[in-house]
Design goal:
The structure holds two protein chains of two kinds. Chain A is α+β, with helices and mostly antiparallel strands. Helix content of chain A is 38%, strand content 20%. In chain A, β2 (150-151) and β3 form a beta hairpin. In chain A, α2 (56-73) runs antiparallel to α3, α2 crosses α5 (112-135) and α4 (91-104) runs antiparallel to α5. The longest helix of chain A has 40 residues, at 2-41. Chain A starts with a helix and ends with a strand. In chain A, 25% of the residues are buried. Chain B is an all-alpha fold. Chain B has one domain (16-90). In chain B, α2 (22-39) packs across α5. The chains are: A alpha+beta, B mainly alpha. Chains A and B meet through α2 and β3 of A and α2 of B.
Amino acid sequence: MIRERRRTKQENNSGIGKGNLYILTGLIIGLLLGLVISWVIAPIKYIETAPNSLRVDIKNEYRLLIAAAYHANYNLPRALARIELLSDPDPLLALTTQAQDLLKSGDINGKAFYLAYLADAIKTASISQAGISANATKLPITSTPSPTGISDGFLTGTPSFITSITPIIRLSETPIATQMSRFILKSQQIVCDSTQAELLLMIDVFDPTNLPIPGVEIIITWSNGEEHIFTGLQPEISEGYVDYLMSPNIDYGIRFASGGVSTIDLAAPDCTNNQGTAKWGGIKLVFQKP
Amino acid sequence: MVYGWVLHPVEYRDTSLVSLRYDYRTDYVLMVAEIYNSEGDAEQAIRQIAQLGNEPPVDTVIQALAYAAQMLYSPADLVMIQNLANALQTWSPTPIGINP
């Protein structure tokens, strides 16, 4: 009797053990099947995504395309609506950073200019808007239809209206090269008293009314190379400012891509002081459109 | 499901231009058309459109044109996309290094 009970108990125990093993095996097989299905047979496919989910490098290309399109059509509300789709925390910073990165990497195709140009337009629009607010002048809100109907991040056929900014449309569509074709050297100054200016070539470009001009392409040349730089990428200094770090004992030439000023030859000045401490200085050039 | 849909839903990131929604694709094509209209560089336009997928760029532009017309884009925009489509249809690559 007791033996039979023990045997029955043992059988029951082994039955429970088998049951647990089956469950565990089932779970493992299920997990493996799930992984095979989700990774191999039917992997996730991204469809109907928005520009803000693009990979960083593709997003940069998209931003560049927006800037180039703006340079083509001068339609700031449209460019702003497109920039908004990228959900950059600071669109202006994104544009200038990308332009600077492009310049650092050589910018063979001269694309940094487009980014700087759009950044300048956005900044000008913001300043204009701030100025309007500061003057507290009640101006009629200019509602500009967004041609592509960009609304709430969706593009629809129903024209939407952007009322948050007063668009500054560039009335003159004269090519930049013509706009900036003539500059004269207004002043040239050697800077020896600042360590920050060491070997620095600092250039300021102004229009006839003494307003700084961003987006001006300047070509720095030396015996076996050249580099293109643009004003306006350091707006915290000035919209018309650009600098270039020279190497000692090299003669540089400077000219505007649009022509105008003929090449100016210069080199980093030797600012060795009376005590004989060797030090290189900087050069500050001011150009103005007459 | 609660975990997957509510607590930790799928976030789309690091996607490519191929997966863009149709309205964004159309706006992308419009941007390329605007640049082409200004610069007239068909080769550059083809390179840019080709990033939207494996379809022939002309087909992509024609599809975008149809969508833009359906969504009542402005006539000026439609003309620009149409011009781009025409340019891509007639464009042929410049042969390089062919010697008689």
